[in-house]
Write a structure and sequence with these properties.
It comes from Sarcophilus harrisii. By secondary structure, the protein is mostly helical. It is 82% helix and 0% strand.
């Protein structure tokens, strides 16, 4: 029974028996649901920050989002327990709401993994490109060193030009050989099928 203020003399006093309806569980579930729902929307806004983050801070943003997703999953476990303890007439609706939140969080988790995968692939391509450029420069540097050594050994400029011309011709021979091999492979495949 809920007691209100003392009635004045001659007035009618009605006790509000409906005030405070709803179980403690209902009152515990609703704020937790609202808080979790709010966190899901915050993560969605943070996902936009991932695309605009620079290379140094993207890891921090990813870790922050992952920590928030993990926190939401623990809240969802609690919400599932609370929804199963709801009165039968509210249980179905409560479970649907929790399932919808769970679906949203799983979608966010998948989006984060996809972003990380794309970032890792992009970083791998950049590393490979850098290695290739470094290897090309190393080859050019090696050629210059060989030419310098040949000059110090007393080879004439004519011999040096012949060596450079031969390297140039060898490159075209290699490309021609590769093309000829591809044509032969194509003809073999055509002939066998």
């Amino acid at each position: 029974m809920v007691l209100g203020p003392k009635p004045e003399a001659g007035s009618v006093f009605v006790v509000d028996v409906f005030r405070g309806t709803g179980s403690r569980r209902d009152r515990a579930m609703e704020p937790l649901y609202q808080q979790t729902h709010k966190q899901v929307h915050e993560i969605q806004s943070h996902m936009g920050r991932l695309e605009t983050s620079d290379k140094e801070s993207v890891h921090l943003v990813e870790n922050e989002i992952q920590a928030r997703i993990d926190q939401i999953f623990s809240s969802l476990e609690r919400l599932e327990i609370l929804s199963s303890k709801e009165p039968p007439n509210k249980r179905q609706n409560a479970k649907l709401r929790v399932d919808q939140l769970k679906y949203d969080v799983q979608h966010l988790q998948t989006a984060l993994r996809n972003f990380q995968h794309r970032r890792y692939a992009r970083e791998q391509q950049e590393r490979q490109r850098e290695e290739l450029l470094a290897r090309t420069f190393t080859t050019n540097g090696t050629q210059k060193k060989i030419l310098d050594i040949a000059n110090t050994l007393g080879l004439s400029n004519t011999v040096m030009r012949l060596i450079e011309k031969r390297a140039f011709q060898d490159k075209y021979l290699m490309i021609g050989g590769m093309l000829l091999t591809c044509v032969i492979m194509f003809l073999v495949v055509q002939y066998l099928t």
